[in-house]
């Protein structure tokens, strides 16, 4: 299955039309029509917030089937740092790595190790290049999508480096090819905590080459892994990731690994929207060197493809990291330079919120929207099926029809 357009889908039979998802969506990408939710995919950033908040479990994240792994002769697993926080009483990450090999993978390349390499590259770029401050992390694909959708004026602040999963896939394939393994035999599978990473790694917006063969669900892999791990008594020392890479699984882990004294990190959709507005207004100019944002609460441990409570998982990962003595990996350890990490091209701003491509027509539509807004109560109750009065006015202008507001009916 190639996931290119949708990584969150709706089961209309289960939808009860409660408007919770519509109210929680950070990009106002959901409407209620005929008592059922409708996802506007051109505005969706695949963050999974609707999955998390759905009372009827009508939203379902999409990911690749584990059966896809068997399609390749040489299979490489890329476990996310947050995977290690899912297991109770885990005192050695090698149990997880050994378990993945027992599942049928031929090799495991830790994304936490790639995160350490990304950290090293970020440090060098911030020291040697004139990056626009504050530099905004692009490790969370949902945040990057949100910026290009609603805050394109901040695009120059985005760190032009591939996310750790991409670097892990790129380096794992490079090493496999150097060992003489045919390219067509290599299957590389990231184990994802969220649908945004599923979408991003299949979309490959900033890369000219695709390295990921499939993106698997962390929860699906977890239940398969438990059985295998229970049979392991003495795992081999397979892990190369240190405390720094493990820390990337939680909010603040990336910032801490950089060793900067002047940084901001936050997580959760509402917090991120507020911070981006502040950044867009220039209120934080000079207030920080680096900004780390994770759409999921608590960071990747809060992704909807996890099984464990994010606060419990975060505590487990902290304790695990404290036991690890492996120093962070450096680019020179793998013969890499900055070019290995930097985007092939910058992402394109979205036009989903444009009223029209023609500026004159867009201005006319905007005037009509403002005219409708004067008639609407401005309380954003959602009874019309739109998340706000402005959204309802824009929908009417774009699609035609008339205002559908219970308050207007009451005043007749």
Could you characterize what this model shows?
α3 packs across α8, α4 packs across α6 and α13 packs across α14. By secondary structure, the protein is an alpha/beta fold. The longest helix has 18 residues. The model has no long low-confidence stretch (mean pLDDT 94). β8, α7 and β9 form a beta-alpha-beta unit. It is globular, with a radius of gyration of 22 Å. Helices cover 37% and strands 11% of the residues. It has three domains: 62 residues, Alpha-Beta Plaits; 275 residues, no CATH class; 59 residues, 3-methyladenine DNA Glycosylase II, Chain A, domain 3 (Orthogonal Bundle). It has a four-stranded parallel sheet, with helices on both faces.
Class based on secondary structure composition and strand pairing = alpha/beta
Total strand segments: 11
Strand content: 5-15%
Largest sheet: number of strands, sense, barrel closure: 4 strands, parallel
In the predicted model, the low-confidence regions spanning at least 5 consecutive residues are: none
> Portion of residues in helices?
25-40%
How many distinct folded domains? 3
What's the N-to-C terminus distance?
53 Å
Given the structure, what is the number of helices? 15
Give the strand line-up of the largest sheet.
6-5-8-9
Shape: globular
Helix-strand pattern? EHEEHEEHEHEHHEHEHHHEHEHHHH
Mean pLDDT: 94
